[in-house]
Design brief:
Shape: globular
Structural class: mainly beta
Strand content: 35-45%
Strand order of the largest sheet: 1-2-3-4
Order of helices and strands: EEEEEEEEEE
Distance between the termini: 41 Å
Number of strands: 10
Helix content: under 10%
CATH topology: Thrombin, subunit H
Radius of gyration: 15 Å
CATH class: Mainly Beta
Number of helices: 0
Length: about 120
């Protein structure tokens, strides 16, 4: 016996490499790694906000204090979607492996950010 599943696309953006979706504050957040973008989708309206990050971004996590923690080509950084400001927090392999990037990350139950 087979079951049929109905899938309905939302939004209009076609990502180059969409990944890491999370649902937060009634919106879907995800990264477009090769499109160098952070995307926020309102599933009710289909409206999308896209922030160009200027680099491959591998993960996004909302901050309790507002904004996001992101990780990608330049290491780990905070991002303020209201101003577009990025603040570098750490880049542990800048001298050793300049071509490496962070691919994924999330917070554990204690709120600590883990990325690799």
């Amino acid at each position: 016996m087979s079951e049929s599943i109905s899938v309905t696309p939302v939004g209009s953006r076609i990502s180059k490499w969409g990944e890491g979706p999370i649902f937060w504050n009634d919106h879907l957040l995800y990264v477009d790694i090769e499109g160098h973008a952070l995307v926020r989708l309102d599933p009710e309206t289909g409206g999308e906000e896209v922030w160009e990050m200027g680099e491959r971004i591998g993960t996004v996590v909302p901050r309790q204090s507002g904004g996001f923690i992101c990780a990608g080509d330049s290491g780990i950084y905070s991002f303020d979607p209201n101003t577009g400001a990025k603040k570098n927090l750490a880049d542990p392999e800048a001298d050793k492996c300049p071509d490496n990037r962070f691919n994924d990350g999330k917070c554990d139950p204690m709120g600590r950010f883990w990325a690799g």
